[in-house]
Amino acid sequence: KNQVEQSPQSLIILEGKNCTLQCNYTVSPFSNLRWYKQDTGRGPVSLTIMTFSENTKSNGRYTATLDADTKQSSLHITASQLSDSASYICVVSALNFNKFYFGSGTKLNVKP
Amino acid sequence: DAGVTQSPTHLIKTRGQHVTLRCSPISGHKSVSWYQQVLGQGPQFIFQYYEKEERGRGNFPDRFSARQFPNYSSELNVNALLLGDSALYLCASSLALTGQTTGELFFGEGSRLTVL
Fold it and tell me: Is residue A78 classed as helix, strand or coil in its secondary structure?
């Protein structure tokens, strides 16, 4: 069964600290993996997109990693800001199938 | 340039009714996909359309249907509404089919449906 699991479900950190969010998937055959940021009540916004051959991709203070062998990805946020408070969603798509598998998201709360 | 626009932004229906949600993609984008997001959960994929044809379908009952028009806008229809259909319905547009490419998916702000 194609699934995407994210951990932790929620996380509270202090402003300026770093954090790492995890995504494990069983989607096969793998096509690509995306990380999205979703503010409450808004549509998701893309952070990174990675294919099988990529194992690191950065977007400002956001760095995503991918290990296609172990089917794991992580999103590392450096020097967190209050505006980073949001849900972070991992999305995996399967090759040859126009379907997207979403994780339930990690809700990040950055406190001053 | 306008982003993905969805209408209505909020609506309330009662059980058994029918609802139509609308989505206008970014100009030049030929693919539209629909997602259901129940409060506190991640989005669930419903449909993807490309060049007016259905190209992908998630695990949703036949009460859910959609279509894409010649101008690439799209409608999502839900019949015989159930309480469990209450959710944020998101539309996303892309230049091409994104399941097999790394093309960017751009989401609208969603239509919040409440079924009473």
Answer: coil
Asked if B42's CB is within 8 angstroms of A105's CB, the reply is yes
CA-based torsion, A95, A100, A76, A24: positive or negative: negative
What is the per-residue pLDDT across B24-68, written as a single tens digit (0 to 9) for each?
Answer: 999 999 999 999 999 888 899 999 999 899 988 888 999 999 999
CB contact under 8 A, A102 and B88: no
Strands (E) in B1-116, as ranges, are: 5-7, 10-13, 19-24, 31-37, 44-50, 53-57, 64-68, 74-78, 87-94, 106-107, 111-115
Name the token pair of B4: 């993905």
Q: What is the pLDDT of residues A50-71, one digit of tens each?
A: 988 889 999 999 999 999 999 9
Longest dimension (CA), chain B: 40
Q: What's phi and psi for A97, nearest 5 deg? A: -130, 125
**Nearest chain B Cα distance for residue A70, angstroms:** 21
- Asked if residue A42 has pLDDT above 70, the reply is yes
Q: What is the separation of C-alpha A71 from the centre of its chain, rounded to a whole number of angstroms?
A: 13
How many CB pairs below 8 A link A and B? 72
Residue A53: alpha-carbon gap to chain centroid? 17
Tokens 């990380």 locate to: A35
Mutation for testing the A interface, residue in B47, B100, B104, B114 having most A CBs under 10 Å? B100
Nearest to residue B107, comparing CAs of B25, B30, B40, B52? B25
Smallest CA–CA distance, residue A16 to chain B, in Å, is: 26
